[in-house]
Every structure is written in structure tokens, then in C-alpha cells.
Amino acid sequence: MNLKPHKAGYVSIVGKPNAGKSTLMNALVGERLSIITRKAQTTRHRIMGIISGADFQIIYSDTPGIIKPQYELQESMMRFVHSSLVDADVILWIVELGEKMDLELDLLQKITHAQTPVLLIVNKIDLAQGTQLHDKLIYWKEQTADTNIKEIIPVSALQVENIEGVMQGILNNLPEHPAYFPKDSLTDKPERFFAAEFIREKIFENYKKEVPYSCEVVITEFKEEETIIRIRAEIYVERKSQKGILIGKQGSALKKVGTEARRGMEQFFQKQVFLETFVKVEPDWRKKELKLKRFGY
Questions:
Q1: SS3 95
Q2: At residue 167, what are phi and psi to the nearest 5 degrees?
Q3: Do 205 and 131 reside in the same domain of the chain?
Q4: Which of 131, 168, 154 is nearest to 53 (CA)?
Q5: pLDDT of the chain along its 297 residues, tens only?
Q6: Based on the domain organization, do 122 and 221 belong to the same domain?
Q7: CATH code of the domain in which 196 resides
Q8: Can you give the residue range of the structural domain that contains 58?
Q9: What is the maximal distance between C-alpha atoms in the chain?
Q10: In a domain, 182, yes or no
Q11: Distances (CA, A) of 121 to 13, 41, 60, 157
């Protein structure tokens, strides 16, 4: 009896902020692991999502959007991107329908001239009008003619369109290898991480301007009981004025964030959640290396 060889490997999803990296990974894994908001730069860490079959295991890495770093937090975010390229077996380079080839040069070289096979994913094709998609595919074929890009795949991550095309492209390029994780694994991140991400997502959705980017969430208590999970979270901001905005009049704004985050957690953990949130001021935490290390960057 001829058994198919087992394939396994790491697949890094890279691209600019808001290209749809998190939406694509969630669609590929079939679970909501990465936060998705309309604001750019919501992903700060490298988040792994694992999908396994009888003869394969794919470990996806959702990475922060590629930017020119302005301060220490962004430097740390870009280090996550670079490290994900180093150990990748396949790279998914995701671009928006209207995007042009203007990534930072050294990173572009790393992506397109690495030994690793690259699949160029043209996302948001559901927004295409007239011959736009056809024209874009020709444009990218011309731009990447002398690179190691194996395939250009048009998708709509939001509408889950042609996700099977991406899966097949990955499996075609994945090396033969035993599984890296138990077959029932979904992610490498602990439950505390996802609890913090649900709160951070709701902050991004409910506040404007600089406030969401100045926030960091730390889970100080995560107690799982038979019928309920008790979670205590501390939200750090950089200025006292931001603390006032975050809490809102008589605590109304923070209460809304807590309620929405709790609902998301209950759906994710499939258990009742009791959530307490506290806001603290940590001046300029995004620029302080020691503080960033404490926050896991």
C-alpha cells in the first residue's frame, strides 16, 4: 500500500498593514486567532495558527504589517517579521488589489530572492471592477519575473474565496517532514494571550486616533474553574489624559470594552467569563526597551 509522504512546515504571512494578513490566516486555519480591525498595525506579535491533516501539518505565522519603524515597539515588531522569514518553509507575500511594488528594499530582497518558495497572494479581489484584476495579475507577473515567486494567487480572504488555491499552493511547496506539534494543536500561544488580544481588539474598535496604539493589555490573573473563567486584566496607557478617555464618563467607555471583549472570549473559550479591567499609566512604554521586554516584545 502506497502511503502519501507526510509534509510539514512553517508558512510566514507577510505584507503591509491592512493587506489582510490576519483575515487570511484566520480563513486558512478556520479559527479566529488574530485580531482583525480596520485600523493598521493591530498585529504586534508573531501569532502561529496550526492546521493538520492525515498527511500534512501547516504552521502559519501571522506577522505585524511591514512599516518603517519610528520607535522601539515598531523595531520589535519588525524583528518578528524578519525572524519569521528566516525559519519559513514557504512565504505568503500578501498584497492588496490596488497595491504597487514599493516595499522597503532590503525586506523586498529578502522576500523575493530567498531560497524559500514564495506565493504572491493578491487579496481583496471582491473589490475588483472591470478588468482591474486581470490587469493587476499581469502587473505582478511582470514585476516579479526575475524572482523566486512560484505562483500568483488571487483571493478574497474576507469572502473566503479561493482559499483552497492557497492551501494547494502551500502543499505543493511544503517539504516532507513529520508533524512539529500534536495533531490537535491549534496555536502556540497560551489562553492568556488570546484573552489580552480580545480586549485589545475592542479598544481598537471603540477609540480613535492615538489611544489604541498607546494601549497594552496584560492578563494578571486567569483562573479556569469548572463553569467559569475568572480573568483580571491591566490596560497600560502612556498618559493620564489617555486613561481618562479609556475609562470614559463614569466608567461607561471601559465597561463597553469589557462587555464586548467578554462576549468574544466566551465564544472563543466556550465557557462563561468573569472579566475585571483596570487602567494604569506607564509613561512612554512604547519607547522603553525594558518595559517592552516585560510586555513580551
A1: strand
A2: -55, -45
A3: no
A4: 168
A5: 457 899 999 998 888 877 888 788 888 877 655 544 444 444 444 567 788 888 999 988 877 665 565 556 656 556 666 666 777 899 888 888 887 776 555 566 667 666 788 899 999 999 888 898 999 999 988 888 877 788 999 999 888 889 899 999 999 999 999 998 888 777 767 788 888 888 988 888 888 777 777 888 888 898 988 889 999 999 998 888 888 888 888 889 999 999 999 998 888 888 899 999 999 888 878 777 777 777 666
A6: no
A7: 3.30.300.20
A8: 7-173
A9: 70
A10: no
A11: 10, 19, 15, 10
CB-side neighbour CA atoms (13 Å) of 57: 17
Which of 138, 173, 208 is at the close of a domain? Answer: 173
Instruction: Judge whether 75 and 286 are in contact, CB under 8 Å.
Output: no
Question: Is residue 50 situated within a structural domain?
Answer: yes
How many domains is the chain built from? 2
Q: How far apart are CA 155 and CA 240, in angstroms?
A: 44
- Residue 82, C-alpha cell as written in the block: 524578519
